[in-house]
Design goal:
261 residues; six-stranded mixed beta sheet; three-stranded antiparallel beta sheet; 19% strand; globular
């Protein structure tokens, strides 16, 4: 993320230099110089700390509610604490958010390419399940997933997922428990969110296989957590098999090569 983008987010969210310093550990004088334009080339470590804070347009629990429309409609929410699933379900529908370890992350609207890829993925998965007679159930976002029934601080909305244990579907409002297979479609605004934060949560929760589809690079990055976190990278031009289906489910995104949709 470029410094100019951070400056825009800082203004939009109402972040103070003191708050940024508190969250990142960067001296407040340094923060003031960076966002005041005095420091033209911040140190690499400093930029990494700032990028972590601003990545994904994070809505942090310590941001003052009067500067965040997200909270203005619900004054019952307390400040300076982690949020829970109960808080999540009291949020307004817009903007869409995910809850990870008590922190809220804004989800940007998907692009047309993102939507087209999602539809293609779910169509291929549904066709396979229908023809093979598997009892697994596929879903497409938005659908709430509580990865661990004992953890009330995390709710995610994967782009595409498969659940093979019907007991995890007992609550009609959300899936409770780790899906067997998850696909996230990466965009410039959610890259770190999907490749770092959510990947770690999925592994910890017991997701068996995780794919990251990157429309910009036209690649599919597959991780099989069951197989010692085996990672493979495939171009869109190459059909890719789903490991947990014993290779029988083949996903083909070749129609999206060179930007075709």
């Amino acid at each position: 993320m470029k410094l100019q983008e951070m400056m825009e987010l800082k203004s939009e969210k109402g972040y103070s230099c003191a708050w940024i310093a508190e969250q990142t550990g960067i001296p407040v004088s340094t923060v003031r110089k960076i966002f005041g334009g005095e420091t033209k080339q911040p140190r690499r470590e400093t930029m990494q700390a700032l990028e972590e804070l601003f990545a994904g347009a994070t809505v942090d629990r310590k941001v003052k509610p009067q500067k965040l429309p997200l909270y203005e409609e619900d004054n019952a929410l307390e400040q300076n604490r982690l949020y829970t699933i109960d808080d999540y379900y009291r949020m307004p529908d817009s903007p869409r958010v995910e809850l990870l370890d008590g922190r809220l992350f804004v989800m940007t609207a998907p692009t047309l390419t993102h939507q087209s890829i999602s539809i293609s993925l779910i169509r291929q998965i549904c066709d396979f399940i229908d023809k093979s007679g598997h009892k697994c159930t596929p879903f497409i976002a938005p659908v709430d997933v509580q990865l661990d029934e004992k953890d009330d601080t995390t709710i995610v909305q994967p782009d595409v997922l498969i659940v093979c244990d019907e007991n995890k579907l007992a609550d009609d409002r959300r899936i409770i428990g780790a899906p067997d297979f998850i696909i996230e479609i990466i965009s410039p605004t959610n890259r770190k969110h999907d490749t770092v934060r959510k990947k770690k949560k999925y592994e910890q929760a017991g997701v068996r296989e995780y794919w990251m589809v990157d429309p910009d690079d036209q690649t599919i990055i597959t991780t099989t957590f069951e197989d010692s976190n085996l990672v493979s990278i495939h171009p869109f031009s190459e059909p890719v098999s789903v490991a947990i289906s014993d290779g029988k489910l083949i996903i083909d995104l070749s129609s999206f090569c060179d930007g075709d949709v």
